[in-house]
């Protein structure tokens, strides 16, 4: 059963059936046909998403091969591990060398920097622990009362929310603190619109971030920039339906916000999560690796939570450096949508998933790793 929007009805499909439906070849083929029918003639259209999970699905399911030649999908800076500044990873490395246990998410330990990597520190005997949730980091602190434990908390709004909830709730052990490297997605998208040689006709907004911030967080783009936006989920039909809505806007000369992921995304987002984020963090300018300083895009713990702020607790304050990427790495061009990974001479050559040279080849959400895993077509 379909709703009027073309999305499946939540009430008639179980979870496993929903995935099967959204991957159904006939549905996907029908949406691809609809896209081709809506495609304006004699015009090249470039749509950008800013989500590693979107790129993963696009490549995994070969969606680019279903689209008209003049409809281009490019990946923006949607990988939090890729854009985490090298100097902030260096802060975590320096603490590890001082005997502090660093608890962080899996992909972070492999990111190469001028200072080395957390994986190399672990191989040398440092206390580096891979965790799956902030509560795992708290448990590590409680289980090691004679050690300082720092949760290296990285990511966009989706991972900001649980970190904020942890801080606001309190009741944390004295030997626990957070080293944060959180970034906000909409300011980076605004920055992209100001880069002269990056032309974008429409945005696909990330579904999971939208669950937290709400679909209205993207309303600034059609209102202030005349930029079409569609919030989309992650299965093939989700992405193609979002593209279809964007094309209809572009074809009709319109710019609005279409929420095509209404199953989980509300206009106002998650009020409880947003309240916790507002209580825990202040918004500040922040550095994005390979991109530079982006206004209003970073979060730092408020003074009320100084006791769990690792930078204050240990007196560390690293400064950004110009050599954030290794020589010859084109990761910044990939994240800005200027090139595809296959255009980098190091791709699958000097830079491979087994021996990543740049940050985009490390994370499961990194565009280079995704293209290496699923192919370049």
Brief account:
By secondary structure, the chain is of the alpha/beta class. Helix content is 38%, strand content 17%.
Report on the structure:
This protein has 377 residues and is an alpha/beta fold. It contains 16 helices and 11 strands. The chain has helices spanning 15-22, 25-38, 52-60, 80-83, 86-97, 118-123, 134-143, 157-169, 185-193, 207-213, 220-225, 236-251, 271-280, 310-314, 331-335, 367-374; strands at 45-49, 71-75, 101-105, 128-131, 149-155, 176-183, 202-206, 229-232, 257-259, 281-288, 292-301. Strands 4-3-5-6-11-10 form a 6-stranded mixed sheet, with helices on both faces. Helix 2 (25-38) packs parallel to helix 12, helix 3 (52-60) runs parallel beside helix 16 and helix 8 (157-169) crosses helix 13 (271-280).
Integer average pLDDT = 93
Specify Rg, calculated over alpha carbons: 21 Å
Biggest β-sheet: strands ordered side by side in the sheet: 4-3-5-6-11-10
Helix content: 25-40%
Most strands sheet: 6 strands, mixed
Instruction: Output the structural class.
Output: alpha/beta
Number of helices: 16
